[in-house]
Amino acid sequence: MLKLFYTPGTCSLASHIALEETGIDYSAVPVDFSKAEQTKPDYLAVNPKGRVPALVTDRGTITETPAILTYIAQSVPQAKLAPLDDAFEFARIQSFLSYLCSTVHVAHAHGRRGARWADDPTAHEAMRAKVASNMTDCFQLIETTMLAGPFVAGETYSIADPYLFTIAGWLEPDGVDPARFPKILDHRNRMTQRPAVARVLAVLKD
Ligand SMILES: N[C@@H](CCC(=O)N[C@@H](CS)C(=O)NCC(=O)O)C(=O)O
């Protein structure tokens, strides 16, 4: 059985929702950041990167959200979470996942995790000060050129949707008013109406 290591409020939400959408049996194990569990030997034995998510399979552990999402879509093809038999459309989904992972998530992380990139507290402050404008630029691009609507790939729901939903949830904490992005707001509302999303959010509240 697949086992997902997750932390509420983090990017692990995307993988959590995708697993729930498949309907397969899986277990979800919380990693408590308030106790720095991600840095402790027990968790580092699961994921030496010290980050969530990590997905433990019977063949080993997968890290990195795009890889986990793709693995879920390919392992449970009947859930139809990606256009597996269309190389071009699948590449477009992968392109979207990569953008969220390598650009948008990193822009967000500059607000809280500046110590990854600099030791100087004034540099941390300078990084924090850029988060709202960087996130605005990223979401403007998504709104106008990447989100077909109503879902990322158009009418068909895919693994790109829980990932967008997850990262769009960081707009307000990053000081960006989501009202300037009507398609992204509509996407967020549609997502919260999905039973799988509601079930995961209920688990995270407990
Ligand atoms: N590129 C990784 C990023 C994983 C990541 O940075 N996760 C954050 C939560 S969103 C984390 O575990 N942070 C813990 C820390 O920095 O100590 C992915 O997409 O899965």
What does this structure look like?
It is an enzyme of class 2 (transferase). Its EC number is 2.5.1.18. This protein has 206 residues and is of the alpha+beta class. 53% of the residues lie in helices and 9% in strands. A hairpin with a 2-residue loop joins β3 and β4 (60-63). α6 crosses α7. The two termini are 23 Å apart. 34% of the residues are buried. The mean pLDDT is 97.
**Ligand species:** glutathione
The second-level CATH architecture of the largest domain is Up-down Bundle
- Which word captures the global form? globular
Radius of gyration: 17 Å
Task: Count the DSSP helices.
Answer: 8
Structural class call reads alpha+beta
Question: What does the main sheet amount to?
Answer: 4 strands, mixed
* Count of domain modules: 2
Order of helices and strands: EHEHEEHHHHHH
Mean of residue pLDDT? 97
Name the helicity range.
Answer: 40-55%
Instruction: List the uncertain runs.
Output: none
Distance between the first and last residues' Cα:
23 Å
Enzyme class: transferase
EC number: 2.5.1.18
Keywords: Transferase
Protein name: Glutathione S-transferase
